[in-house]
Write a structure and sequence with these properties.
Chain A is an alpha/beta fold. Chain A contains 3 helices and 14 strands. The longest helix of chain A has 14 residues. By secondary structure, chain B is of the alpha+beta class. Chain B has a domain of 95 residues. In chain B, strands 1-2-3 form a 3-stranded antiparallel β-sheet. In chain B, strands 4-5 form a two-stranded antiparallel ribbon. Classes of the chains: A alpha/beta, B alpha+beta.
């Protein structure tokens, strides 16, 4: 039997060959990358090479084929378009990048995003915007459960409906849900604001209706205008009732975790 | 007997950096900063969550990239509290003075722009990271 050299992790966790493929077609500050034959690691390595080393500002990725963890950890100002759907943990840990996804996404899209924008033309799975720190996440379809779990900043805007436990343990930031939401809205939230245009199946613990202000109107109208979403519907505002937790009882080291 | 590391209560950007910066004391150094241009998208994006706070009785803005408060010593005009806090923070980040940025060259483990998304054309750091080796230590055989 011939010797076999394994160049990949047989568990499917890590591809050991991190060589940059350098196959994208570039034209000045724009590039097109066909990802059909590339692994996740190769695609992400190519992206970083284009953006950090080649001066490219706009990348279009063809055939993402619902791979997981694409477009992760991009830490520069740029525009990235995926012509197709992504798997789980897409576009996470970003700081400055603006993503356009012409398809669907799996779990935890834009998780831990620090700044930037992620716009999804169709549906998103559960945990969209998990632990979001800043920036905008726009989902033009429906989202699953626990949207914005542990959200610490930023804005999540959903044109469709959201599942159960939306805004679970939310600590800061804003959610704008145009459709209905499932049971447990805002359960155990510390702070932040959730706007709902449709029906709420049931409020979570310590989530209460809030008083509408001009700032709420300005925020919603601004975000709808920026993303070309037309006239916003009427919303009901929900906030933390401050009965369960409050920042005053937190130690300084805990306080800074939510800033 | 080994020296214990210094322990402090505050989480102060000046302590981490070892110095105070001119834009903490002079509003004229931050007035011209364009917050829209400094952030992705068509509004101020992530800066919407940045507000003027008080740390140890002094106005301050929180720098999430070094987990510390950056105090502001000049008088802040009424009604412009959050705007000024955001401008001071952007000045701090764009200048590379945030302690988190200073740590990047030595400690970041994958390639990234040193000045992140705040400065266009920033050099790339982290492309040659190697795990530090403790002198005199040898890896166990298993």
């Amino acid at each position: 039997m011939d010797d076999v050299t394994i160049t990949y992790d047989p568990r499917g966790l890590v591809e050991l060959d991190g060589t940059i493929p350098k196959v994208a077609e570039t034209d000045g500050e724009r590039a097109v990358l066909d990802a059909r034959e590339l692994s996740t690691r190769k695609i992400n390595a190519e992206l970083r090479w284009l953006l950090y080393e080649q001066g490219v500002k706009e990348v279009t990725i063809l055939n993402p084929s619902a791979r997981h963890s694409l477009g992760v950890g991009i830490l520069t100002r740029c525009r990235i378009t995926f012509e197709g759907s992504l798997g789980y943990f897409g576009c996470g840990l970003g700081d400055g990048a603006e993503f356009q996804i012409n398809g669907r996404v799996g779990w935890s899209v834009a998780e831990n995003m620090m700044s930037g924008a992620v716009v999804i033309e169709s549906n998103a799975g559960s945990l969209a915007g998990a632990a979001l720190r800043g920036g905008d996440l726009v989902v033009k379809g429906q989202v699953g459960a626990r949207t914005g779990i542990d959200q610490k900043g930023g804005t999540i805007l959903v044109l469709g409906s959201a599942g159960s436990m939306t805004g679970f343990m939310m600590q800061r930031g804003r959610q704008i849900i145009c459709g209905d939401v499932g049971p447990g809205l805002g359960d155990s939230m510390y702070d932040g604001t959730i706007y709902v245009g449709g029906k709420v199946a049931a409020l979570g613990i310590d989530c209460v209706e809030g008083e509408w202000t001009d700032a709420d109107t300005e925020l919603i109208e601004r975000k709808f205008r920026i993303y070309g979403l037309g006239a916003p519907p009427e919303f009901t505002k929900f906030v933390c009732g401050k009965k369960l937790y409050n920042y005053d009882s937190l130690e300084p080291s805990e306080r800074k975790l939510v800033l | 007997m080994t020296d214990e590391p210094q322990k402090i209560q505050s989480i102060d950007a000046e302590f981490l950096s070892g110095e105070r910066f001119a834009y903490q004391e002079n509003i004229g150094l931050v007035e011209e900063i364009d917050l829209d241009a400094a952030t992705p998208g068509e509004d101020i994006n992530w800066l919407e969550d940045v507000e003027l706070l008080i740390e140890e009785g002094t106005p301050a803005v929180f720098d999430r990239y070094s987990n510390s408060f950056l105090k502001i010593y000049f008088p802040i005009p009424d009604g412009r509290e959050n705007e000024i806090a955001r401008k001071v923070l952007i000045a701090h980040l764009q200048s590379g003075n945030s302690y988190g940025i200073r740590l990047k060259e030595k400690h970041c483990k994958f390639p990234q722009p040193e000045l992140g998304p705040w400065v266009e054309g920033s050099r790339t750091v982290g492309d040659d990271w190697r795990a530090p080796v403790l002198e005199g230590w040898e890896a166990p055989p298993h």
